[in-house]
Amino acid sequence: MTSNIYLVVHFNFPQPFQPEHGKKAWALHEAAVNCDWIEEVVAASGGVGMGPSCIWVFGLDNYAALDRLFHSDEAISKAYVDFFANMVDVQDMVREAVTFVSQAEA
Questions:
Q1: Which of 19, 79, 10, 21 minimizes the C-alpha distance to 45?
Q2: Helix, strand or coil for residue 89?
Q3: What is the pTM of this model?
Q4: List of residues 6+ apart from 84 with CB closer than 8 A
Q5: Cα 66 to chain center, whole Å?
Q6: Is 87 in contact with 13 (CB distance < 8 Å)?
Q7: Which residues of 51-89 are buried (b: 16+ CB within 10 A; e: fewer)?
Q8: Is 98 within 8 Å of 6 (Cβ atoms)?
Q9: Fewest CB atoms less than 10 Å from the CB: which of 18, 21, 61, 80?
């Protein structure tokens, strides 16, 4: 499967960092990788540049999957809401995938 949309979430962890924050991050990671309708998941932290220092990207098939992530009774939805409710400077955006076609296929 190929992701058609990407939910990109930039955020900072609250300071001081508490062990509970790490537990909630792990719970979100576990729920995401064990969810068969989330096609890709990437998390990163630190680096250089402006804005929040952490990022989480969820590759989804469509907007219905996005709604499911936000509003279902599934473990992934609960973990998502529980984790990001406690984060700071949360900025999310949805981007649609771009497919590049070679000149030979055009």
A1: 10
A2: strand
A3: 0.89
A4: 9, 11, 90
A5: 10
A6: yes
A7: ebbbbbbbbbeeeebbebbeeeeeebbebbeebeeebee
A8: no
A9: 18
Query: In a 3-state reduction of DSSP, which class is residue 9?
Result: strand
| DSSP one-letter code for 51 | S
pLDDT tens digits for the chain (106 residues)? Answer: 678 999 999 999 999 999 999 999 999 999 999 999 999 999 999 988 889 999 999 999 999 999 999 999 999 999 999 999 999 999 999 999 998 888 777 6
Answer whether 11's CB lies under 8 Å from 87's CB.
yes
**Can you read off the two tokens belonging to residue 91?**
């900025």
Share of the chain above pLDDT 90, in %: 84
Question: Structure tokens of 15?
Answer: 């300071």
